[in-house]
Amino acid sequence: xxxxxxxxxxxxxxxxxxxxxxxxxxxxxxxxxxxxxxxxxxxxxxxxxxxxxxxxxxxxxxxxxxxxxxxxxxxxxxxxxxxxxxxxxxxxxxxxxxxxxxxxxxxxxxxxxxxxxxxxxxxxxxxxxxxxxxxxxxxxxxxxxxxxxxxxxxxxxxxxxxxxxxxxxxxxxxxxxxxxxxxxxxxxxxxxxxxxxxxxxxxxxxxxxxxxxxxxxxxxxxxxxxxxxxxxxxxxxxxxxxxxxxxxxxxxxxxxxxxxxxxxxxxxxxxxxxxxxxxxxxxxxxxxxxxxxxxxxxxxxxxxxxxxxxxxxxxxxxxxxxxxxxxxxxxxxxxxxxxxxxxxxxxxxxxxxxxxxxxxxxxxxxxxxxxxxxxxxxxxxxxxxxxxxxxxxxxxxxxxxxxxxxxxxxxxxxxxxxxxxxxx
Length: 424
Prior knowledge:
Layout: H1 8-13, H2 17-27, E1 49-56, E2 79-81, E3 88-90, H3 94-98, E4 103-109, H4 116-125, H5 138-146, E5 156-159, E6 176-178, H6 196-217, H7 221-237, H8 251-256, H9 261-274, E7 279-285, H10 293-317, E8 324-329, E9 333-334, E10 346-347, E11 351-357, E12 364-366, E13 368-369, E14 376-377, H11 383-393, E15 401-403, E16 409-411
Helix pairs in contact: 2-6, 2-7, 9-10
């Protein structure tokens, strides 16, 4: 729309439903750059949705998924058998142990990134941080390549904290952030004193200003912002927004997930999967256990165990587990050596990740660490390989490449190869 032609009479007409609908449709237009690509993926998707349970801070692999009982490095926790003959887990993960036949535990994860911010970026994007470019997270790729631009719900949702965004794929493919699960998102209803007509006029004025700015500057990011506004309006109007509202869930269901913020986040994730959201990340913070590792990790496992187990059960009972990939990991592991503060420090050289659900060979253990959990025995599993596995199961070609705004080709993963041994 030409900004000069946007006069007072046009503003007044903007309140009509026809104009409002047209404006939203325009804002929801996929645009020219980095929209969902209808080109077939490298292989059929087994996962229609991905749920990432993000253990922020870096969990101790030795105290969770790769126990070393009886060793000086092993700490006080015991190992317990699971339903998978080759898999033992920490005693404080009893519910997951009962579901060991559904899990693929990668015990050979290894990277060189031991700084929190760099490692978190690396594990989300598959690339080491680079000052010349911001890489998309896997959730950003899922939004751009697999998301429906006309969907009423965001393709990428982050619960309990902000995930990494979509980088050069644009803000329109970044995460919708829900800081706290349970109530509906904030600001999804019109404020007091603003009716639908007035809201329509405000949107029209914003559209006019964006058009003028885009015309005068040539800034390609304007289209991305327009898509974000359109998605926000679509969400406000959608009956599917009830996916975020847990007020109708029974006390028994909430208790099954542990009735914690993280548990409620996992329950919201299940509801979002049922409504077609492609990528959901649920954050459980607190794993940076330099001090008092064992007490803190035990409490964190008491939160993780019921939520993760209930998510698997609910997805399975609803026939969704075979089409939903669930991943659980953090940015690195923690030192085998127990420090003077009864804690463990950063240890990127050897750690664990867990996959379950769509296309995953349950009841498997991939790779191993030595007796102390210090080194990977045999070939290490790189972060790009893990992301290539997740991407492939979701129907993304790990080698698919997009050109950045500065003309640099970037693929979904940095030379990652899917781990076929854990794929069904």
